[in-house]
Design goal:
This protein is α+β, with helices and mostly antiparallel strands and 304 residues long. Helix content is 31%, strand content 30%. It has nine helices and 16 strands.
């Protein structure tokens, strides 16, 4: 039995469950927003968790679970907690703690354990891990000092900036308007990097498989190109064997069964790695390229 945990209507979960249905693989949907209706009955002893995982129409013994697909939103932002009493908030927190503990200790394929996903909560920390794996990372400055940013810009030329946390932010160029707002960073450290020009690549690793996408765009952040008046064209791409192997090795070193690796094939021929997304919205790439990412994930979850 496979357990899919999160908000069922979200596109990655919907694609995973659709593929599980198509393959005839049994699964249980553990609805994050229904924490009050689906109480967990779990007991952790050492490195083992015993108990049952509830779902609509029944429950499954932890020992019978072969794989877990985990895509949870921040439980503190759940609509069910708006105006909720203290007891409900406490119950919700306990429910999510139980899910987290179980997924950490569960045998088999877990996409992904929270301990493995933690590297993305600090982009500077993850960048160091990426460098250790052998990938190039753009020259980087994390600071709240505007003067250091200006010195860094004089040294490296055009810069881009983004959040240092795991919360999604739009990557932007440090243009004249941004420079005028630079004093604002005194209240919040920001990550600045030398701008690398070339072709964007997104590589999804699923267990031991690689699905690569090439993105042609006229914007710094191709994810928002259309809303910014630009364009982004996605196409399936076959990476060289050594690059594919490096991506698999990086995902394995981070402990990720499923990963979205953001690369740049620079104009000078070098390959740079920007970050590794441990909970990728792979459906965007799958829809544009036809790559069977969801099917690969479903099959991997079925293998104990």
């Amino acid at each position: 039995m496979i357990v899919v945990c999160g908000i069922a209507s979200e596109s990655p979960l919907a694609r995973i469950t659709a593929e599980l249905d198509a393959l005839g693989l049994p699964f249980a949907m553990l609805h994050q927003r229904r924490f009050q209706e689906l109480p967990l009955e779990l007991e952790a002893t050492g490195t083992t968790v015993r108990g049952r995982i509830p779902y609509d129409g029944g429950s499954v013994d932890c020992a019978d679970v072969t794989g877990v697909y985990l895509r949870l939103m921040d439980w503190r932002r759940l609509p069910e907690l708006r105006g909720a009493d203290e007891s409900t908030v406490r119950r919700c927190g306990s429910w999510h703690t139980a899910v987290s503990t179980w997924s950490e200790l569960a045998p088999g394929c877990v996409m992904n354990r929270e301990s493995a996903m933690a590297s993305n909560t600090s982009k500077p920390h993850q960048a160091q891990l990426i460098q250790r794996s052998g990938f190039l990372v753009p020259e980087t400055l994390v600071t709240n000092d505007p003067d250091l940013v200006r010195e860094f810009r004089e040294q490296h030329g055009e810069l881009v900036y983004k959040s240092i946390s795991g919360i999604r932010s739009i990557v932007r160029t440090l243009d004249r308007q941004a420079l005028d707002r630079l004093p604002l960073i005194r209240y919040c450290p920001v990550q600045f990097q030398r701008r690398i020009t070339g072709t964007n690549l997104r590589v999804h690793t699923v267990a031991h498989q690689v699905f690569a996408t090439r993105i042609e765009t006229d914007r710094v952040d191709y994810r928002y190109a259309h809303s910014d008046g630009g364009h982004a064209e996605l196409s399936a791409w076959q990476p060289p064997a050594d690059l594919a192997e490096r991506c698999l090795r990086l995902a394995a070193q981070l402990g990720l069964e499923l990963a979205g690796i953001d690369l740049m094939l620079a104009d000078d021929g070098e390959v740079y790695c920007f970050e590794v997304n441990p909970c990728p919205a792979f459906t965007y790439y799958e829809a544009h390229t036809g790559q069977p990412i969801a099917r690969a994930a479903a099959l991997a979850l079925a293998r104990r």
